Structure formats: C-alpha cells, structure tokens
UniProtKB/TrEMBL annotation:
Belongs to the peptidase M14 family. Residues 1-28 form the signal peptide. One of its GO terms (molecular function) is zinc ion binding. It comes from Siminovitchia acidinfaciens. One of its GO terms (cellular component) is extracellular space. The active site is at 650 (proton donor/acceptor). This is Zinc carboxypeptidase.
Length: 798
C-alpha cells in the first residue's frame, strides 16, 4: 500500500486567468495568443501535512484565522483572551499564519506518527485475515456450576484459536428446566494477550451440558461439573459483554461487519440500503506535464482511472525534423504529441497550442487544459507521462458508486416503536466514529439473550445505525490522504482540477443540508470548492446528504438522533448556525432546552462510567455556544425539519497531562489504544441515548406547572416565572384568551441562561398550560377542543 501524506499548498502564486483568442493550423505558425506572456512560476512541490495546535493571540487574529482557508479541527479552547485552535496545515500555511501572529504551539500528528498508525492497523488486519481463513477451534477450559449464599451460578471459560481478534464472538447454549437458554461470552485480555472467553451469570437450575459456538463456525460441548470452592460473598457483577472492536476499520470492513451481524441475528436485524449511491471511490487519471505554470499541460482521462484511464500514456516529443508542424497521433492508449519545430529544429509549440491539439485529435481519450487558467504562452519541452488516478486502495476496495448502508436493530421493526438514529463518519478522517456504532450494534445483539436492560431496549425501540455516511471519503482517508474531511466529488472547474488539488476536492457533508445553510446567509461554510468546509454547489447536492434526508422521511417514527464526530470532547445540540450578526437559528424553547440538558446529563454520566472521562460543562450545550457556527449541518435539519431531538458527539476528549500541567488533544486518529477507549465510552453514551428514548416513550405522566408568584394583588410590576415538575414547554396568553399551541411560549432568557420571566406591569390574567417532550399535556387539556381546564393566575397591579 502506498500512503500519501502530502498536498499542494493553497498559497501557490497562481497566474491570472486570461481569455484566449487564437486560430490553429497544422503548421502551428498561425497560432496567436492575445494575452501578453505571463511570468513562468515553478509548479509548487507537494507539501507534508501536519495536525497542529495553533496559538491565536487575540480576537483580531482569531477573526483573521476564521477568514482564511485553513482546515480547522473541531477543537477550540479560549483562555485569557487567547485561543488554542487545532488545524491541519502545510509548512507554507504555517509561514503565512505567522505573518498574522498565529504560531504553532504543539504538533499533534506527524507523518512518522501517522505511518505508525497505519502499520498498527495493517498488523491487526493481517492477523484477523489469517485467523478468519479457517474455522476456529474451541477448547473448553472450565464448565462449572456453584452455589453460594447469593444463589446458583454458571461459570465458563472457553478458548478460541481466533480469540486474539475482538470480532470473534462465542455464545453458550444450555438447557435449564427444559427451557433453552443462551448468552454471549466476554473476551478476557490482559496486557494485550488474549486469555479466554468467559461467562458468569445466575441460573435457576443446574444444566447438564453446555454447547459453545463461534461466529467463525467453531463449536465445542462439555459436561457441566460442580465447582467445590465457595464464591466470594456478594452478588457477582452482571454479565454484560463489551469490547468487540480491535482495530480501525475502513468502510468496506464496516459494511462486512454489519452484514455478518444481519446473518447471525436475522430476527433482530435488517440492513437498509440507502437509495442515493455515492460518486464512488474513483477519479479520472491525470498528469501535469511540464514544470512551469506557463509551459504545463494538464491531461485528464475521459474514463475513470480504473476503467482504462490509468492505461493512457502521453508523450511530448521533438520529432527530430526542422520546420515540422505540431501533430498528435493516437495508438490505442498511447498518445504522442510531436511538437512543432522551427528552421533550426527547436520546439516552438506553446502549452495553449498543445492543449488545443490534444482536445482536437485525442478528445475521445483525454481532455487537456493549461495549468490553472494560465494563458499557456510558454514553449512546451519534451516530456512523457503515464496517467494515474492517484488512488492507492487495494483491489478489494470497490471503485464503483457505493451503497451507503444502515443496520436496523429491533424486535419490532415495523415503525410502531420509537426510532433512534446514530450516524458517523460524515467527516472521513474521523476514524473512531464508525467504531462507536459497530461496538454499539454488537453490544445490543450479543447481550440481548442474557441482559434484561438490553432486551428492553431492543424490544421497545427501532434503532438505526449508519457506521459510515461517507464511505468514499473514508476509503480515501485510509489509503490516500489521512486528513480527508469531505467526500470525493470534484465540483471544481478546469482551473482547480489538476491532480495537485486532489486532496482538496469534495463537499463537507455536514455543511450540505438545507437548514441554516450558507446559501441562506449563515456562517460557517464556504463557497470555495477547495475549502475544507465547502458547502457544495447547492443545498443537498450530495447523495450522502440526501440519504440522511431520505431516512428521516422514510421512517417518521425517528424521535432521537446522534451525529457522531471527533475530536475534542464536545456534546452539542441545535441551533448549530448563526448569521453574520450572530443571530442564531431559533433557539429551543426553555422546556426543550431543559430536556436537552437533562438527557445530556444521563448520557454524559454513562460516558464517564467507562474510564472517568468528563465532558466539560464549557463543551456542553448548543453548538454556537461551545464551538462555532456550522452552516447547513445535518443535526439542524433533523431538529428543525423533522422535530428529532438530535445531539452531536465529538468523541476524543482532551486528556490531562500531569507532567506538563495542561490538557492534551488526542487528534482525529489517535493510537488505537486511545481510539479503542473513546469507542468504548461513547458506545456507552449512544446506548444511554437509547435509554433516554425508551424512558421518553414510556412517559405517560402529564407535567405540572405553577406560576410564581401566583394570583394576587401587588404594589408594582411583577416578574412571573414557572415551576415545573419536569422539562416542559409552557404556552401562555396575557389577554385572558384561551391558550393554544399558537400562543406564546416561554423561551430562554439568554445564551446559556434559564427560562425567561414574564414582566407584568398592569393587571392581567395569565392563562397557561405545559407540554412535556413526550407530548403529555398538563391536566390532559386539549388546546384544540372546547375544554377550559388550563391554568390561570389573575395578577392585579395597584
């Protein structure tokens, strides 16, 4: 595998685009260029890319950084009037930033470290492939039952020959009082060494035998014997299986994994194939021929690289004749350009002339342009090239348009149960995020048989998980350019479509949606096709974004969503965008905001349970309050258009470095050991969201509200607030009329503040009722009917 870690600088001095007027004849002598010759600039070499932490000294510098076309990560930290901002930059970009007082504080990921990550992943894949090549062998080490003061228990230890791979799953089956029972076994690893799979759980009766099966096809049986020693006092820990991922997985691996789960659990799983195919992990083959801006010719194959474009060769040659005309010949996939010569045999063809000749005589195979809009008045020198699509993925990675897949988990997948959506890898370089969804799916399915809480979720929810929204970009990030953020679709015109721009093509899928978009004047996306936050040519232009919309349209039972990103350890919700005056999209009501906070507390507590990670209060809340504006993001679409309570994970919270006494960023692709921990803790969080959804669906209790102060006579103006039994939205009127869903609602009093109060300056009656997020209406009042069982508070001002 060839790993490319470079891109051309965005700050190359580009020549001005000049419209050309010319005629072409076979001799080449009648060719006229209307523009003056342009200065010949060397074509810039490709530069290494690093992830760095920038020191932004003040507000002015911060505003300048936001204006520049710099690829910013999600991590932004303010302290003492300065900022720490993580970014993906080249050396020339670092030099440019220094001019504005922005310097590099720390380097987070170097090319050497990246190569280590790649080697680590390759070793894991090779090990997994070798193991999966044959059916695994199972050895039962322990098969016991015992009884202590707490009850009777079954204990098993089984070793698989493929156990060093985390995806190897063992299941135990036995008969208990005539009833068939089964449970998934936990994998025990110590200091990197696989020891065995085990199971410990209470049983009602002692079984005689147990059968162990593996998802790789192995099986073994054993008699169950009594363990003579007594267990330690107290109840054993509940048997709950985790740790199903052991390396970073590309989108092809992810699809294979969910397909495997669908075959293994047909009663609980189906695979949903999204209708909008991606553009594909594919590119046209190209070559930039020539070393200077005014002498270079960019040649692009008409066919995709893997469909013949990579077979094309182009040669610019001196025919070895005096006064020879410019000519192009095509022999199969070999194109030869014989450059025009003068009376002394020197070549005279300009780049613009060669472009015209290629398009005229080899247009069925290739298209040609001058370099980035240059007039092309410089004389071409002999050179040859083999066109290439510059894609390095192995052959088993399909180049064809990709069908994005979701795994749907639930006992009842008929739309009757509340839907929960988790989706990841909108941004290709965020490698941990697919692991969160895969780990979650595995936990739900492999704990279903023996864990009551898991069974409750799977039986009562309709769960949709999309491990990779952006498979094309994901493959490109794994095999070609690890910092790829966007998809692979090139919307640039000829002046930005040479291969030097290839790492900058694509659309930011989390800027391509129709709510709060750049096209509506919101901040946080770019119209530049090479920007890291390019919003696309129009709203929902990209099939990957259309798939999210399709899913929300197709399954109206969706009530909760989680958009999983990395890194920085943020936990956010709508609004996600603001305009140039920093006016945000409509804020949730005070009741809705209260529900977001309450649900977030439950989810964040479960994240903390894994290894103590705390998502900071400063990084929890609506997106603009804790990060920055993200025009056209998908979570805003789901919330404002579909009413789906949607959060944004940013996995990968900063780690405290006690030796340096500062927070340390983890990056998009941390060592797998760290990535694994992030996947484990945020899988906890995703399952906690499902718990929120389950409790929400079971909530049939109407809220209670109370105006404070209530009815009475007062000497002067009164500020009325509302006490609530739970998060709920309060609808009210001040003119004595009946409150309805069209009435005013209690809103937030300000950014990151609580509910507003109502200022009453003259005598009035406040009529009001509350509605909780589950739709329960206080006192079962019907705002659309004739009832009058709403609340009232008569306020008299002397």
């Amino acid at each position: 595998m060839v790993m490319k870690k470079k891109r051309r600088s965005s700050f190359v001095i580009l020549t001005t685009f000049v419209m050309l007027g010319f005629t072409f004849s076979a001799s080449g002598n009648d060719f006229q260029v209307s523009a003056a010759d342009e200065k010949a600039e060397p074509i810039a070499e490709e530069e290494s890319v690093s992830t760095v932490q920038l020191n932004v000294p003040n507000q002015q510098a911060m505003e300048k950084l936001m204006q520049l076309d710099i690829d910013l990560a999600h991590r932004v930290l303010e302290h003492d009037g300065a900022w720490e901002v993580d970014a993906v930059v080249t050396p020339s970009e670092i030099a440019m930033l220094k001019v504005h007082g922005i310097t590099v504080k720390d380097t987070l990921l170097t090319e050497k470290q990246w190569n280590q990550r790649v080697a680590e992943r390759e070793r894991a894949i090779q090990q997994q492939s070798a193991i999966a090549a044959a059916e695994d062998q199972l050895k039962v080490l322990r098969a016991n039952h015992f009884t202590n003061q707490s009850g009777t228990f079954l204990y098993l230890e089984v070793k698989s020959s493929a156990g060093s791979t985390a995806s190897t799953a063992l299941r135990a089956e036995w008969t208990e009082n005539g009833e068939q029972k089964s449970a998934a076994m936990s994998r025990k690893v110590d200091y990197g060494e696989y020891l065995y799979h085990f199971l410990l759980l209470p049983i009602e009766a002692k079984p005689d035998t147990v059968k162990i099966t593996s998802n790789l096809g192995g099986s073994a049986s054993a008699d169950i014997t009594e363990w003579l020693g007594a267990d330690k006092p107290g109840n054993p820990k509940k048997h709950y299986v985790t740790n199903f991922v052991d390396h970073y997985m590309d989108p092809t691996e992810v699809d294979e994994r969910i397909e495997q789960l669908a075959k293994e659990f047909p009663d609980l799983v189906e695979i949903i194939e999204m209708p909008n195919k991606t553009n594909g992990y594919r590119r046209h083959a190209q070559a930039t021929m020539g070393g200077f801006t005014n002498t270079a010719v960019v040649v692009t194959s008409k066919s995709w690289g893997h469909e013949g474009g990579n077979d094309i060769s182009v040669e610019f040659k001196n025919p070895g004749k005096n006064s020879s005309p410019l000519d192009v010949s095509v022999n199969g996939t070999n194109i030869v350009v014989e450059l025009a010569t003068n009376a002394s045999g020197s070549t005279t063809s300009t780049a613009a002339q060669v472009v015209s000749a290629l398009n005229s005589k080899a247009g069925n195979l290739v298209s040609a342009t001058t370099y980035r809009g240059n007039a092309g008045a410089g004389v071409v020198t002999p050179v040859n090239a083999k066109l290439t699509d510059n894609l390095s993925a192995p052959d088993h990675i399909s180049r064809d348009p990709n069908t994005v897949k979701a795994i749907r988990i639930g006992k009842h997948r008929d739309g009757s149960k509340p839907g929960v959506l988790g989706y990841s890898q909108e941004h290709a370089r965020e490698w941990v995020t697919p692991l969160v969804t895969i780990e979650t799916a595995e936990r739900l399915l492999r704990n279903y048989a023996q864990d009551g809480e898991t069974k409750r979720l799977v039986n009562n929810l309709d769960i949709f998980l999309i491990p990779s929204v952006n498979p094309d970009g994901g493959h490109y990030s794994f095999y070609d350019y690890n910092m790829q953020r966007k998809n692979m679709t090139n919307h640039c015109g000829p002046t930005q479509s040479d291969s030097g721009y290839r790492d900058s093509w694509g659309v930011d899928l989390n800027r391509n949606h129709s709510v709060g978009s750049m096209f509506d004047g919101f901040v946080g996306a770019s119209a530049s096709c090479t920007s890291s936050t390019f919003a696309g040519p129009s709203e929902n232009s990209e099939p990957e974004a259309k798939n999210i919309v399709w899913l929300a349209d197709q399954y109206p039972n969706l009530a909760f969503g989680m958009n999983i990103h990395s890194y920085g350890g943020y936990f956010m919700w709508s609004p996600g965008a603001y305009d140039p005056q920093r006016k945000t999209l409509p804020r949730p009501t005070a009741g809705e905001e209260s529900f977001y906070w309450a649900a977030s507390t439950h989810i964040l507590n479960k994240i903390q349970d894994h290894r103590g990670t705390v998502i900071l209060p400063s990084r929890t809340g609506p997106i603009p309050d804790v990060l920055y504006s993200a025009a056209g993001n998908s979570a805003d679409y789901l919330w404002y258009e579909k009413g789906i309570y949607t959060w944004n994970f940013e996995v990968g919270a900063d780690l405290w470095n006690a030796s340096t006494n500062r927070w340390q960023a983890v990056g998009f692709q941390p060592t797998y050991a760290e990535g694994h921990e992030e996947a484990m803790e945020f899988a906890n969080g995703l399952i906690a969201l499902m718990e929120v959804a389950y409790n929400h669906a079971k909530d049939k209790q109407p809220p209670k509200s109370k105006a404070v102060p209530g009815k009475g006579t007062f000497d002067g103006p009164v500020d009325v607030t509302f006490e609530l039994s739970e998060p709920a939205t309060v609808y009210y009127t001040l003119d004595g009329s009946k409150p309805t869903f069209e009435s005013e609602k209690i809103q937030l009093s300000g950014t990151r503040e609580g509910a507003e109060s109502i200022r009453v300056t003259e005598s009035t009656t406040i009529n009001y009722f509350a509605v909780d997020p589950a739709g329960n209406i206080e006192k079962n009042y019907n705002p659309l009917g004739n009832g009058n069982n709403f609340n009232s508070a008569k306020i008299t001002i002397k």
